[in-house]
Amino acid sequence: MIVDSHAHLFLPNFNGDLDAILQRAKEAGVEYILVPATDIATSAEAIQLAEKHKNIYAAVGVHPHDTKSWEDEWIDKIEELTQNPKVVAIGEIGLDYYYDFSPRETQIKAFKAQLDLAVKLKLPVIIHNREASSDVMEIIRSYKGSGLRAQFHCFAGTKGDAKELIQMGHFFSFAGNLTFKKADTLRDIAASIQIDNMLLETDSPFLTPEPFRGKRNEPAYIVHTAKKLAEIQNLSFDDITRTTTYSAYKLFGIGTKPKLSYTYKIGNSLYVNITNRCNADCVFCDRKGEAMVKGYNLKMSKEEEPPAEVYIKEIGDPKQYKEVVFCGYGEPTIRWDVVKQIAKYVKENGGKTRLNTDGHGNAINKRDITEDFPGLIDEVSISLNSPDPEQYAALMRIDKKFFYEMVDFAKKAKRYSHVVMTIVELNEVDSEKAKKFVKEELGVDFREREYFYN
User: Fold this and answer.
1) Residue 258 gets which letter from DSSP?
2) How far apart are CA 250 and CA 245, in angstroms?
3) What b/e string do you get for 227-243 counting C-beta neighbours within 10 Å, with b at 16 or more?
4) DSSP 103-133
5) The pLDDT of residue 15
6) pLDDT of residue 101
7) pLDDT value, residue 429
């Protein structure tokens, strides 16, 4: 299932054959389409489309090009339009300093007024930014902590902007220009953003992807952007569509939340959701929140934790996967006996295993469980998080004694398995110091995991 989060289907480009366009979209796997307006009149048109077609939703607002005659009373009109149940966002709004069809001061005034309305109504916004990144970022920073949620459509910022916006909880989308031959810089930026923070869009009828560039764009063509994004992210097409579809649900409320997954495939690896229970409470972990990863629902109570046989049945032939990874939103060594049963099955049937852990398994089980690793666990990925015990304790909201438990676990684990120590990419964590600690003190491999908003 695919959600096209940005298609201007009210424009004259679609007159006469909209039904055929929607049929082609359906055949391409596009389940829902979000139609953002550009002014008051098209806001009403977007709503009419949404009321006529079950799979279409609307966003209402005034595009920066159309703010030249901005009147403060328009906010009341936009608010009135949001009362329609098919309206799920304020948009398309923002700043455009490329064409400057409207005075910049007027664009900023209209942008802020519509952001204020979105915060008031607790609605997400769809943001247009063209050659106005400095002002857009300054304005968005001023709303930090307000509850504002945004989609930066056809993202035009830098990697640094993206990282900052992710930490504020915002989303990004790229259109068909991602497929253009001279879009290497844009593709590089797209590669730097976790897919969990992205949506798919066409911006129809504009920015038609290859191989249809030069023709009118339409929602069915979104598959070409999705395929290019899969290539850029080194993920499968299904990974891209599943994850972005959930993002559309999370941001706009379009569609439904997926059911609980006991195992989940990402790329060519299969992950095993052992438990949501954990002895730590990391500040960057969504274990107590939605507990979603790449469109999979991992939210599981203790009562829902299945026996090893359920996982083994879902795994089937482990050789079909690059590896089977024990990784969810909890600490898998809490159910170590279950992990061992599954790992035994995987290894006996020619598969490879990896354990993702906080490194507290020995303390949790009150014995050295690394002695069980031979023949069961090929690789261990341990969350270092910080080389500083005090910072480690603060990030994981746990007693700092567990830092030393984790280090001891790593030293013991490397006797039997390949060990990789990881940190989450956070500004407050010194990654170079962490890398040096891992290499020189522990003598194992190091990896930095990108932070993504949950």
Assistant:
1) P
2) 9
3) ebbbebbebeeebbbbb
4) -HHHHHHHHHHHHHHHHHHT--EEEEEES-H
5) 85
6) 96
7) 82
Kindly tell me if the per-residue pLDDT of 385 is higher than 70.
yes
Q: In the chain, where are the structural domains located?
A: 2-252, 263-449
* Closest among 122, 11, 127 to 64, alpha carbons compared: 127
Who's near 312: CB < 8 A, 6+ residues apart? 341, 342, 345
Superfamily of domain 2-252: Metal-dependent hydrolases (3.20.20.140)
Shared fold status for 2-252 and 263-449: yes
pLDDT band at 453 (very low <50, low <70, confident <90, very high): very low
- Mean pLDDT, the chain, rounded, equals 96
Calculate what percentage of the chain has a pLDDT beyond 90.
93
Provide the CATH number for the domain formed by 263-449 in this structure: 3.20.20.70
DSSP three-state, residue 386: coil
Q: Which two tokens stand for residue 393?
A: 């304790």
pLDDT of 367 higher than 90: yes
Cα 87 to Cα 35, 158, 274, distances in angstroms: 9, 30, 39
